[in-house]
Amino acid sequence: MRRYDGYITYRLASSTRDVRLYGLLKFHEFLQQKLGKSIEQMGRLDVESYMTELALRKKREDFSQASIKRVTISIRMYAQWLADEEILDSKEFYKIERDLKQIPGGDIGEDNREALSDEEEKQIFRKLVDVYLQMLVWTGENFGPRRKEYYSLRIRHLELDRKEPRLKIERSKGRKKKTRYIPLFPGQVNQWRKWLAYRASLNLPHDFVFYNPKNPSIGLTSNSIGYLFSKISKITGINLYAHRLRYTYAVRLWEHNVDIYTISWLLGHSKVETTIRYLKVPERNFRQKFMQSAKGLFY
Q1: Domain limits of the chain?
Q2: Residue 212: what are its φ and ψ, rounded to 5°?
Q3: Model pTM?
Q4: d(Cα 257, Cα 298) in Å, to the nearest integer?
Q5: What single-letter DSSP state applies at residue 163?
Q6: 27-82: per-residue pLDDT in tens?
Q7: Fold of the domain built from segment(s) 118-256
Q8: What are the pLDDT digits (tens) for 261-293?
Q9: CATH architecture of 2-112
């Protein structure tokens, strides 16, 4: 439990984390009572058994749909951590995901995400007239930051005057700080310069790239980012949130033949296996890309 808590601490707000841990605690109790195992000994069959138990309880109507969803999210996150640590192999992980999807009311939002279509993107920028909101969307589409990376971005992280301009993104993972650098194209450099000029005209007392519209004297928070994307969704009629833009960024890189290792590096994933799961890339897509890219090498 302690390791799991450490895994999700940097990903979730404390209130959300408590809910996830509660769901995992129920799974832990099930393993001990029914199977005599600890949660670190979890296997695919254990998850199947627990999911069957949840489905039966759901039919008896003494287990709410919201509870099922919380538990499935908790188990999936723990299973993903096991896979990232190579304790659980990829085949077992995918089987667990399939098991979770079969549970009534246990759909997991992250698995249902989809990239923005070209038409949706056009509609967003056609209906958004606020420069600030446009910049939030543009940043998400061009760099795929996590929600926390929006509000931790500072002016010094925009290294625009270098010979090879780049965006520096820092992210704390527990006690460690992970840094990645994203190269900037000329059009992106110009857009950042325009934004910094606009921001300078506001005489803000801080160096956060994005300020809080309700109180410009402070930077953004996780809640304010959620509010802003909800506002964008209402204005445009498009379901939009920070992680959907991150996913759109990754999918478009993949569709434009950027290799999976580069995408993993740009997203800040520790392992390429995480990126493959994140993009939900089928094996046949790798075969297709190989046949297209390697035909000039092998004839």
Answers
A1: 2-112, 118-256
A2: -85, 115
A3: 0.65
A4: 19
A5: S
A6: 777 777 777 777 666 666 677 677 777 666 655 555 556 666 667 777 777 777 66
A7: hpI Integrase; Chain A (1.10.443)
A8: 999 999 988 888 888 877 877 666 778 778 877
A9: Orthogonal Bundle (1.10)
